[in-house]
């Protein structure tokens, strides 16, 4: 049974940082690219960042480029999203997702999803 479990969310003030983790189990982690998405209340789920199975390729939404960094530790079966210079508009539920040997910005291509972690940024 595949499970992706996000952790590290919380409430922070604007300008501060958070790091989300996504612990994977039940799959061969280094066969999967990872994506991060977010969904704010009343809005569509949107792409945030992605990293290839090896970590050699990354991709970011324009809204987070230069502030967020995606990484992974295949030995620990864990992916990370480092979020710096947070803004109130970053407030959302953040989801990690896994896609077999691939990565991309479209949610429908991902095979597995976590349950989400709330990130709230106060002004």
Layout of SSEs?
Layout: E1 3-7, E2 10-13, E3 18-25, E4 32-39, E5 46-51, E6 58-60, E7 68-73, E8 78-83, E9 92-100, E10 112-113, E11 117-122
**Any idea what the shape is?**
globular
Number of strands: 11
| Share of helical residues | under 10%
Helix/strand order: EEEEEEEEEEE
Cα separation of the termini: 40 Å
Q: Any idea what the radius of gyration is? A: 13 Å
Our estimate of the beta-strand percent is: over 45%
Residue ranges: pLDDT <50 for 5 or more in a row? none
Count of alpha and pi helical runs: 0
Q: What integer is the average pLDDT? A: 96
User: For the report, how would you describe the main beta sheet?
Assistant: 7 strands, mixed
The assigned structural class equals: mainly beta
Molecular structure report:
The protein is mainly beta and 123 residues long. Helices cover 0% and strands 51% of the residues. It contains no helices and 11 strands. It has strands at residues 3-7, 10-13, 18-25, 32-39, 46-51, 58-60, 68-73, 78-83, 92-100, 112-113, 117-122. The strands form 2 sheets. Strands 2, 4, 5, 6, 9, 10 and 11 form a 7-stranded mixed β-sheet that branches. It has a 4-stranded antiparallel β-sheet with strand order 1-3-8-7, with no helix packed on it. Strand 4 and strand 5 (46-51) form a beta hairpin. It is globular and about 40 Å long. The model has no long low-confidence stretch (mean pLDDT 96).
Give the tags.
123 residues, 7-stranded mixed β-sheet, mainly beta, 51% strand, 11 strands
């Amino acid at each position: 049974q595949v499970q992706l479990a996000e952790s590290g969310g919380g409430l922070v003030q604007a300008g501060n940082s958070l790091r989300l983790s996504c612990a994977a189990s039940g799959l061969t982690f280094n066969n999967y690219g990872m994506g991060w998405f977010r969904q704010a209340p009343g809005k569509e789920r949107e792409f945030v960042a992605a990293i290839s199975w090896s970590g050699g390729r990354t991709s970011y939404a324009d809204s987070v480029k230069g502030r967020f960094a995606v990484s992974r530790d295949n030995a620990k079966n864990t992916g990370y999203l480092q979020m710096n210079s947070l803004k109130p508009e970053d407030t959302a539920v953040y989801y990690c997702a896994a896609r077999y040997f691939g990565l991309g910005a479209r949610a429908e291509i991902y095979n597995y999803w976590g349950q989400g972690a709330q990130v709230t940024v106060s002004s």
